[in-house]
Amino acid sequence: MTAEITSDAAVVGRRPAEETPAGELRTPPWLGRRRRRPAVSLALRLSVPVALLLAWWWGGSSGRIPPDVLTGPGAVLSALSELASTGQLTDYVLASAQRAALGVLVGCGAGLVLGAAAGLSTLGEELIDLTLQMKRAVPFLALVPLFISWFGVGETFKVALIAVAASAPMYAYVYLGVRSVDRKVVEAARGFGLRGPRLAVAVVLPSALPSVLMALRISLSVSLTGLIAAEQLGATEGIGYLVTLAQQYYRNDYMVLCILIYALLGLLIDLAIRGLERLATPWRGQVTVR
Q: Annotated region Disordered: where (predicted)?
């Protein structure tokens, strides 16, 4: 018994001779997760963005950052007020959001189905994976001239480009997530009579859910890049169209405003996916080091 206590104490880095009498059991240290207080966590998350904002404000107001290099926060707020008062900002954001949502829906849906098919079936992998890997290696921006020749510069071109951008990471992560599912779990489900689509929907995809959520996060981020590229051509509304106007008329304040809007959209998307991850996979936070 004494040897066992000595071995256990060595694991946690404590000496039993000084703290626990020989032959007595002691309560091991708590190995759970100690959550930081919400106020402290929020302050840490905001510290770097706030510091960057203060540095930007100080550089613009002191003249150390010339306005033609980077417009100050005051001018950006004035541009925001100008666009908001005319209603253009709302129209542009809604137009971009509609294009992005439709493209992500098509691209992520296709990537999810193809990734699951390639991961679940050897035949599916042989038919799909090589083609998708070659497509993933081609930058989606290289497809812009080809898509213009096929679809013109209308809405179909924009949605198709966003869909192609979003499909690649979704396919890759879903494929890897499905292939990482424990084979014993699949065999046990088959023992209960699950086969085909029922096995995929009820067992495999829920087991691969962390990879699917990570794929969704990356796909949504990449779709913003596709949205910017799509709205540079043939658009009459949208945030990308506003960037084009700002470039033509040398409105540096509008350019910075559009960058901040894209950053805010990316932040909102990331927060939404993080919230979904906490609800769907609550066990994943237990490995976090505090």
A: 1-30
CATH, residue 210: 1.10.3720.10
Distance CA 81, CA 63 (A): 23
How far apart (Å, rounded) are the C-alpha atoms in residues 111 and 140?
Answer: 15
In whole angstroms, give the CA distance from residue 66 to residue 88: 28
Structural domain contains residue 205: yes
Cα within 13 Å of Cα(92), Cβ side: 25
Strand, coil or helix: 15: coil
Q: Is 138 helix (H, G, I), strand (E, B) or coil?
A: coil
pTM, entire model = 0.76
CB-based contact 162:99 (threshold 8 Å): yes
34-63 pLDDT, tens digit each: 677 777 877 888 888 889 889 988 888 888
Q: Is residue 43 part of a domain?
A: no
65 within domain boundaries: no
Closest by CA to 264, choosing from 70, 96, 140, is 96
- How many domains does the chain divide into? 1
How far is 275 from 271, CA to CA, in rounded Å?
6
- Between helix 88-120 and helix 209-230 the angle, nearest 10°, is 140
Asked if residue 126 belongs to a domain, the reply is yes
Return the closest-CA partner of residue 74 out of 90, 53, 100.
Answer: 53
Which tens digit of pLDDT belongs to each residue from 70-127? 888 888 899 899 888 888 888 889 989 899 999 999 999 999 999 988 888 888 888 9
Both tokens assigned to 63: 């003249």
Distance set, CA 179 to CA 8, 172, 188, 284, 286 (Å): 37, 11, 16, 19, 24
From 240, 245, 243, select the one nearest 256 (Cα to Cα). Answer: 243
